[in-house]
Amino acid sequence: MITLYGFGVGFGLPEISPFVTKTEVQLKMAELPYRKERAMPPASPKGQLPFIDDDGEAVADSTFIRAHIERRYGFDFDAGLSLQQRAQAWAFERMIEHHVYWALVGARWVDPVNFAKGPAHFFDGAPEHNREKLREDAQFRVAENYLLSGLGRHAPDDDVDLAVRSLFALSVQLGDKSYLMGEKPCGVDASAFGVLAGILTPFFDSKLRGRAEEFPNLTAYVDRMMGRYYPEFAWTRLAQAA
């Protein structure tokens, strides 16, 4: 039995972290039995979530977990894709995880209202005398990483405009297909779903979410993926919410 370590339910999502979501969806795609436990990043071999324990072998980082699944269990997440399509899927995955994801981080952690509503509560269990300092330090570290990502160097509207260009690319790639690369979900769909659901959850209000809602095929895609991989989760369909 594989144990998946993540943050757990929150922010109107079945899993707070887009990267934990990615790994969980890929475990479901591969139809591998697993159990899920909550953890904090310091527990991971790489200081970040997700990580898995597979029969005593710890594997950290969602991309390396995918490689482990493919190697150990012989599952091909991109089965049926041509070599060119596999290359395109990898390029979109990098765009999602190294560009769109950071726009999500800005909306959650840098925006003071959203930070107070969401990530600030990660520290509710800390000793009261130290709680606010921990919140300030964590927000500062994340804001610093956001700056280093490149997006944080721009004015707030400019960083959203750049992120929307990537959302537009995803919308064009999706078109009227059910999934990014065709009518069958593949590995990159797990990445896209995790980040897009994180942006579109009604829990947070942001300019990024408002702009993302302008792409109806992306909102329908998130609803589709949620219904397929988290049918038990109480998700208000974005089409209905709109």
Automatic annotation (TrEMBL):
Location of the GST N-terminal domain: 1-77
* Coiled coil segments of this chain: none
Give the CDD domains listed for this entry: GST_C_Metaxin, GST_N_Metaxin_like
The protein's matches in Pfam families, at most eight in alphabetical order, are given as: GST_C_6 (PF17171), GST_N_4 (PF17172)
Q: Does the keyword Protein biosynthesis apply?
A: no
Q: Which GO terms describe its molecular function?
A: transferase activity
Q: Which keywords describe this protein according to UniProt? A: Transferase
Q: Quote the protein name from its UniProt record.
A: Glutathione S-transferase
Protein species of origin: Bradyrhizobium neotropicale
**What lineage is this protein's organism placed in?**
Bacteria, Pseudomonadati, Pseudomonadota, Alphaproteobacteria, Hyphomicrobiales
